[in-house]
Amino acid sequence: MPLTIIVTRDVEARYRGFLTSVMLEISAGVYVAPDMSTGVRDRVWNVLTSWWDALRRGSLVMVWRDKTVTGHLQIKTLGEPPKQIVDADGILLVKRE
Asked: pTM score, two decimals?
């Protein structure tokens, strides 16, 4: 079960209440869960996505360890351009799609 991080920016208070029920808020708008299962992570992201689709305010970024992708990090975004980690001659970069 990998570490999961969610960063929120300019979102309604409901996100904070929901995220603090399943994760630790280590700084304003930054939430971590050291051992979040894939199922829980997917359910959390589905809730966040449905709220964001209805409210269309702010942005959210979720990152977790995934050994099957470049850089071993997977990224999902709402309210920002999609991002992808790419390997540029051994240097990891974030590419906006």
From this structure: 0.91
